[in-house]
Design brief:
alpha/beta, four-stranded antiparallel beta sheet
Length: 398
């Protein structure tokens, strides 16, 4: 009897082949606790052991500035490129974002010092178990009580309670958002419109006390990547601007200060064709048994109708298993996708999809009718591939 050809029964990607974030030693969730531990904030652990303590610490998070994109554009970012060797305490290595590699999840990891399975923002959109609706955790729609959704104190709050001067310098737009409240509150918020104003004020806030912890943020690079792609002139222009902002801040640092430049995720451009963009809204196999489609194109949460979870998992593995890591909820948690299993908070369990799909190839699961804006984006992110996960931790000390 003739053996079946390999392509007749493709083997799905082994879950163990997914490159896990470096939770506990080199992820975004480990950054602020490491800095706060160096300022003697109680309860904080210096998990990123390559970093050296400083009295004044500044984190400048540039939305969308992945490690691989930065390394590929030294001409547009000469100052940042000159700092590549300083990354992660002079090892010249990146850190990881965490899964999924998306803004709401990453900002919550930064601010709380917790992995996604603990802070409870495990995706771009996730199901709210109390209502059964999808909740957009970036825009906080539909609204839900922020303190109930993410009950843990931020590192900024803990630092302030320990006598450290804590401050955030960002766009005024973000001052009163629920995401800021649950992820980045504590100390004082200072809204400034331009990047230059933020750099100048961040330097002032660093100098305002003997011990200070300051956070500042720039979003427009990410926006250019989503709209035009990381291979566009618009994105390169934004990177050039970011490079000048970082240099401006670095040149104003007060004494005994460490500046860390990092990001929430990287990004890749995905071609606009049926091979690279699989449309959930037009695929009856993928829709079968699915009540809600959450997450985003490269990091999907799939919520099954009651009793259909195993069938949905089987189907998604058969259809997508060569291009995506496809796991059940329990498999993804046990594998450590959302952080160490022993740190997983049970209140988060039902927010995660019955099936979780993380892209391996340069491919998306779009939803052209349900998510028209997201489905039209050129640049995308979310999964565990190096281009999305690896982010810099560049360092300047005074």
């Amino acid at each position: 009897m003739m053996a079946y050809a390999a392509w007749d029964h493709p083997e799905p990607l082994a879950l163990g082949s997914a490159p896990l974030p470096e939770y506990g030693s080199g992820s975004l969730a480990d950054l602020l606790p490491t800095l706060a531990a160096g300022m003697a904030v109680p309860g904080m652990t210096a998990s990123i052991t390559e970093l050296t303590a400083a009295d004044r610490n500044c984190v400048f998070l540039i939305d969308g500035l992945g490690w691989e994109q930065l390394r590929a554009h030294p001409d547009e970012a000469p100052f940042l490129a000159s700092l590549l060797g300083s990354s992660r305490g002079g090892t010249g290595r990146p850190i990881t974002a965490g899964y999924p590699a998306t803004t709401a999840t990453s900002l919550a990891s930064v601010g709380t010092g917790l992995p996604p399975g603990a802070h409870g923002l495990p995706g771009y959109t996730v199901r709210n178990p109390a209502t059964g609706e999808l909740m957009n955790q970036l825009r906080w729609q539909p609204w839900t009580n922020p303190a109930a959704w993410q009950p843990y104190p931020t590192v900024f709050q803990l630092a302030q309670d320990a006598g450290v001067h804590a401050a955030q310098v960002s766009s005024p737009t973000f001052e009163h958002t629920p995401l800021t409240k649950v992820a980045l509150s504590g100390g004082t918020f200072h809204g400034r419109l331009t990047g230059e104003e933020r750099m100048d004020l961040a330097a002032e806030q660093l100098a305002a006390a003997d011990r200070s912890l300051v956070y500042t943020y720039y979003a427009e690079l990410d926006g250019a990547g989503h709209r035009y792609g990381v291979d566009s002139d618009t994105w390169r222009g934004q990177l050039m601007h970011v490079d000048r902002l970082v240099q401006r801040l670095a040149e104003q640092l007060p004494p005994r200060c460490a500046l860390y430049v990092t990001a929430d995720h990287g990004m890749l451009d995905v071609p606009f064709d049926e091979q690279h963009r699989i449309d959930f809204d037009e695929d009856w196999e993928l829709r079968a048994g699915v009540a809600l489609l959450g997450g985003e194109g490269r990091a999907r949460h799939v919520y099954a109708v009651p009793g259909a979870g195993n069938d949905v998992l089987t189907c998604w593995r058969e259809v997508l298993g060569e291009q995506f890591w496809v796991a059940s909820r329990d498999e993804a948690i046990a594998a450590g996708w959302f952080g160490p299993p022993d740190r997983f908070d049970e209140r988060v369990y039902d927010r995660i999809g019955d099936v979780v799909a993380a892209a391996h190839d340069d491919v998306l699961i779009i939803a052209s009718e349900r998510e028209p804006k997201e489905s039209a984006m050129v640049g995308n992110h979310g999964s565990m591939t190096p281009v999305e996960q690896l982010v810099p931790l560049l360092e300047v000390r005074s």
